[in-house]
Design brief:
Enzyme class: transferase
Number of domains: 1
Pfam family, one: Methyltransf_1N
CATH superfamily: Winged helix-like DNA-binding domain superfamily/Winged helix DNA-binding domain
Structural class: alpha/beta
Keywords: Cytoplasm, DNA damage, DNA repair, Methyltransferase, Transferase
Shape: globular
Protein name: Methylated-DNA--protein-cysteine methyltransferase
CATH architecture: Orthogonal Bundle
Strand order of the largest sheet: 3-2-1-4
Family: Belongs to the MGMT family.
Largest sheet: 4 strands, mixed
Helix content: 25-40%
């Protein structure tokens, strides 16, 4: 249905866009005021917009400080409290299969990795490692939904929407704190 000429068209989903500094670059936090809808790095903003369009269709972003929970959890995570991200509510959209993959990512313990094949097997779809890889790559809430913890069958770092350097940094950061080491 075409928008009425008597009133301005407005997208159905109103979202907040918050920018947060981190040790690996400025993070864009997109929320609906309650749940985190997307987390991308500032240098990947065009990718964020494409992903939001795919997931939600029409949307509007208003620059504003979002809910405190994601900001505080990220600060705590970068300070070494790796469990802080577990408390962040997310709303991801996506297909049923994508949501199943994304839900399977959250319980992967910080400081550890799994493979696309193992993740596919856990989901009861052992031959679907490529589909798991595509779903993993479409994860709109990186770090919080830890797609960086998935590696290739040979343990190599493979694709990460924020760049392989960031994936390596995140895994090193988690290993450092998961092992009980304290940096002074």
């Amino acid at each position: 249905m075409a928008p009425s000429l008597s009133r301005p068209w407005s997208p159905s989903l109103q979202l907040l866009l918050d920018r947060v500094a981190s040790p690996i670059g400025t993070i864009l936090l997109v929320s609906d005021g309650e749940a985190l809808r997307a987390l991308f790095f500032e240098d990947h903003e065009p990718r964020m917009h494409r992903q939001l369009q795919r997931l939600y269709g029409a949307y509007a972003l208003t620059p504003a400080e979002g809910p405190a929970a994601p900001r505080e959890a990220l600060d705590a995570y970068f300070a070494g409290d790796l469990a802080a991200l577990d408390r962040v509510p997310v709303q991801t959209g996506g297909t049923e299969f994508q949501r199943r993959v994304w839900a399977a990512l959250r319980p992967i313990p910080p400081g550890t990795t799994t493979t696309y094949g193992r993740l596919a097997a856990e989901l009861g779809r052992a031959s679907a490692s490529r589909a798991v890889g595509f779903a993993n790559g479409a994860n709109p809430v990186s770090i919080v939904v830890p797609c960086h913890r998935v590696v290739g069958a040979d343990a190599s770092l493979t694709g990460y929407g924020g760049g392989l350097e960031r994936k390596a940094w995140l895994l090193d950061h988690e290993r450092r704190y998961a092992s009980g080491a304290v940096l002074i």
